[in-house]
Each structure stands twice: as structure tokens, then as C-alpha cells.
Amino acid sequence: MEPSRAAEPAEFLTGRRKFHLFGLTIDECIKVFFGGNAVVSVVVLALITIFLFKEGFGFFGLNQQSLRVYRQAGLEYVDIIRAQQDDHTALTRYLSDLRLRQFNYFTQQQHLAPAEANQRLAGFDEFADRFGGAVGPIRGLVSDLTETVTAIKDKFTNTENRKEERRQLLAEGRTADAAKVEITAVDFAAELKPLLATRPAYVEANAEFARQLSAVIASAPAMPIPDLQARMDRFKQLTGEYLAGFPAVEQKLKTWDYTRPVPWYQTVTSFILGRDWVTASFWQDWYGVIPLFIGSLMVSVVALFFAVPLGVGAAIYINQIATPLEQKLIKPAIEFISAFPSVVLGFFGVAVLGQALRALSQQPSLAWVPGFPFSERLNILTAGCLLALLAVPTIFTLAEDALNNVPRSFKEASFALGANRLQTIVKIIMPASLSGIISAVLLGLGRVIGETMVVLLCAGNRIAIPDFTAGLAVITQPVHTMTGIIAQEMGEVVRGSIHYRALFVVGLVLFFLSLLINYVAQRIVRRYRISIG
């Protein structure tokens, strides 16, 4: 029988306790080693967080300065008129779509030759040309004003560059050279006088524009079928609403004031709620995260749509149904997917999957599927399918762990009451492990939303909010993502510039999003453990 610790010789215990390293016992050395690793992890995380905040928060001051110059140089004034011109362009596109529908009706249902169909559409083309040409005076005015305000902005930019040059010379101790740098302050009040003097000309041009549009709409041609006529009536309604907004545009120009300060919160809202991400523009750079956030969200939703049934279904099969041989074969195969480099999967999406999905969408038998056929091989669907492949191992492993944690007595009690295997899985095992499965899905979401290479290669990289009016077909449209924009643009920006810092703010959004997802997952796991305990 093995002797107890109490029976050990006292001198042996004394000798073991005397062993030390730098005055520490073995137990204390082990504690310091593992505790030191934890401290290093915390320190690294803190340094990364501080660096993100330090670089990112500088964006808001630079963005406020950019918005201030945008207003003071008169670009905001011109954009008020340009927005009116852009709305007219959108109505013109509506007319183009209406013409295409008529052409298809004549060629496909009336079986007319293309030349004869175009002849039938001659009256409509004349109507569309008159509608499109009515904006001519406004477009000419915008062109002239654009040159004026661009010159003001360039003058301000040159002044700021000279100030920076002087600061650098003074920092190098070259006082004499710094004194030679001439700096001329920009008098915005004097520079903007020619711009503000054009307002009466705009009011006159706007009145003529409204008169011509009203005359054109009054002579709108009749459509060949009721469906197309309904679209023409809708076009007339939209044009009427457009004309009704002219007085508001004139009022905005009348009350516009270049001296009005830019509030601090506008620098935040312009980023969080901004719908444009425009960089290196001669006009004005915009840093709005909305199209990138929606792109990341759409790709992640499509990925989870495929990954959750596959991952959870595989976990249920392996844990509850599969034989030991099947478990030895299937489980390592699924977990091996995570060993594939994401860049390799991205190349596979570009070269194989994207082309295959596009070819599949061209099949006449699948024309009923929303979005089919589509021409963009790199889109939300392609990227989502590949991200689903990356998320399956994470969801599978964590979901199986949740199923393993269900007490065996639950299953035995269900069988004892006469339930079959399927009833036991659906009504007992799944509800008992639901919290763990939800946690697995959330961690899978965190896995896909932080992926970079796959979305950079396969999502299409179009910085625009998808057209949700297309319904489910929206998943066939290309998008850009938050991770993709950082990987694509970080290597091209100037360190310390507003663009550089904007990318760090995007990183902060990702950082907080990942924290939120992991926090929710941990709360669910904790609740799951308590309920099982």
C-alpha cells in the first residue's frame, strides 16, 4: 500500500520546499510563468486598443476641418443645386427603363423587328430628349459655379501647404528659409461674392426649367399596355413631386451662410450615417461607413444562411446519429476546412465558384430564382458561399460541444417515455442545447464578419448601398466591406492624413462589433451553463 504524504520523511519535505529560483518556490515560479502570460496578453490588447483610439479619434478633428472648408469655399452651395440636377438624372434613368420595357414588349410580344420597334418608339424618344434637355440651363450654371468654387478651394489648399512648409522649416531650424515662404490668407467673403451674385440667375433659370418640364409632362405619349401606362403615370407623379421641391431649393440657397460653424456632432454623424465613401476626389472626400457596414452585414447574413444549417446539422448527426466509424471520418474532414488559407479560397471563388454560379444563373430552367440570371460573377452570393465554408467548422465544433453537455439522463428519460430518436433530438436535445448552439452561431458570425481576403477578392468591391428594391435579387449585387476597404486602401494612404485615420475609425467599428458579438455569445454560454448546472 502506498504511504501517505503525512508519512513522508520531514527532511524530504523540507528539502523540496527549500528549492527556489530567484527566491521563489516551484509553485510560485509556475504561478509567475502563467500569470505573466496572462499579463502579456492583457498588455498587448491594451496597446492595440490605445493605438486604435489614438489614430482613429484624430479623424474627427480633420473631418470637421474638411467640412468647414467644404462650406467656406462654397462647395456646399453648389452641391445644393447639383442635387437638383442629380434628381433630374434619376428621372431620366426612369424614362430609359420605360423605353426598354416598351422595346421588349414590341419585340417579344408583338414580334416586331428591332428597326420597326425603334420606329414605333420615335415619339417617345422625342419626349425623352425634351425632358432630358430641359435641365440644360441648370447644368451650365453648375458647371460655371464648379470652376469658381474649385479655384477657391485650391487657393485655400495652397495656403495650408505653405503653412505646413513653414512649420517644417522652423522645426528644422531654418528660420531664414521659413521667412521667405509667403502666405496669403484667403478672404472667403470676397472670394464668394461672384458665387452669391449668381443666385438671381439661378432663380430665373430654375423658373424656365420648371416651365419646360411642365410642358414636356403635359405632352407625355400614351403607352401601349396598361402596365406600362401605370409606370408612365408614376413617372408623372414623381416629376410633379420633383417640381414641388424647387421652392425649397431656392430657399436653401437664400439662407445658406458660409460662416455658419460646423458642429462637432456632424463630424460623427457624417461618418456613422454617411452613405458615400469617396476618396481622392477633386471636389470633396466623404467618409461614410454605411455602404461598407451594409456590405459586411449582407455578406455575413448570406454566409450564415448556408453555414448554420450545415454546421448545426452536421453536429447533430455526428453527436446523435453517426456510427463511430462515421465520426472518425466526418469530424476531422469538417474541422480540416479551417486549415485552408482564406486567400486560397478567395482565388477559388474568383476562378471557379463565381464563374460557375454565373453560368448556373443563365440556365432557362432557373429563371424563376430571384436575381437569375446575373452578370456580376463577384457579388454578395459568391463571397457569402465561401464565408459559409469558413464558418462551418466553428459552428460545427461549438454546436457539438453544446450537444455533448446535455445530460445523458435527458435522452434516457425521453426514450423511457416512448419517444423515438427524432422526437428526442427535436424536442429534448435541441432545446436543452439551444443556448450553446446560438452561441456557436454568434461566434461563427464573428468569424465571417472579420474575414478579409475572401470578401476582398470575391465581393465585387463596389462602394454603394445595394438596391433593396430588387428583393432577394439583392444578393447578386457587388458590395464592399469594412475589412476589405482597410486591406485595399491602407497601403496607399499617407500616414496621418484624414483618409488614413478614417480607416482606423472603420477598424474601431469592427473592434466594437466583434466585442459586442463575443460579449453576447459569452452571456449566452454562461446562461447555458447555469441552466444545465
Describe the protein.
With 533 residues, the protein is mainly alpha-helical. It has three domains: 5-56, no CATH class; 73-262, no CATH class; 291-532, MetI-like (MetI-like fold, Orthogonal Bundle), CATH 1.10.3720. The chain contains 23 helices and two strands. It has helices at residues 10-18, 26-72, 75-109, 114-120, 122-133, 136-171, 175-180, 188-191, 193-196, 199-218, 226-244, 246-255, 264-272, 290-321, 324-336, 342-361, 380-404, 408-416, 421-432, 434-449, 453-458, 482-489, 498-532, and strands spanning 277-278, 286-287. The chain has a two-stranded antiparallel ribbon with strand order 1-2. Helix 2 crosses helix 13 and helix 3 (75-109) packs antiparallel against helix 11 (226-244). Mean pLDDT is 88; it is low at 1-19.
Query: What sort of overall outline do the alpha carbons produce when their principal axes are compared?
Result: flat
Radius of gyration: 33 Å
Give the count of structural domains: 3
CATH architecture heading of the largest domain: Orthogonal Bundle
Major beta sheet summary = 2 strands, antiparallel
Low-confidence stretches: 1-19
How far apart the termini lie comes to 37 Å
Approximate strand percentage: under 5%
> What do we call the CATH topology of the largest domain?
MetI-like fold
Query: What percentage of residues falls in helices of 4 or more residues?
Result: over 70%
The DSSP helix count reads: 23
Under CATH at level 1, the class of the largest domain stands as Mainly Alpha
Strand segment count? 2
For the largest sheet, list the strands in their spatial order.
1-2
Query: Strand pairing plus helix content: what structural class?
Result: mainly alpha
Provide the residue-averaged pLDDT: 88
